[in-house]
Amino acid sequence: MGVTPVGTHCILELHGCSPDLLNDVLFVRDAVEQASKQSLSTLLNLTSHQFHPQGVTAIGLLAESHLSIHTWPECGYAGIDIFTCGEDARPQQACDYLVKRFGARRHSLRILPRGVTASDCAGPRRRECSGEVSLCRARN
Questions:
Q1: How far apart are CA 52 and CA 56, in angstroms?
Q2: 121 band by pLDDT with thresholds 50, 70 and 90
Q3: How far apart are the first and last CA of the chain?
Q4: How much of the chain, in percent, has pLDDT values that exceed 70?
Q5: From 54's CA, which of 74, 110, 119, 128 has a CA 20 to 30 Å away?
Q6: Cβ(94)–Cβ(82) under 8 Å?
Q7: CB neighbour class for 103 (10 Å; exposed up to 12, middle 13-18, buried from 19)
Q8: What is the DSSP letter of 17?
């Protein structure tokens, strides 16, 4: 029996970004909001923190999972993590958008399939991605 992933996990590394953009909490928050739209995901909640003397973390809770951006302005670097489940989400589109939005001079993207479908799992802790909001829910 083949294994079908329940989700896609994108690990995006951005290098050579503007330190000013990386240290702008409003810019980073907006990047999370726009990236969630680009990925065809539903942003449920957004939280962020401005570090001192520099750096920002912004995390978007998605109906499909999460999107996070962590910045190190002193290095011109942002570490981005996008995990989505369901068939409709397009996390790679969000990654393409974020490379451009942050003006990265170079980047790397790793794409990891995550989990298996509910039919490949046994017992009461099976998980499935379905429903109108594309939430991953435990199934009894």
A1: 9
A2: low
A3: 22
A4: 81
A5: 110
A6: yes
A7: exposed
A8: -
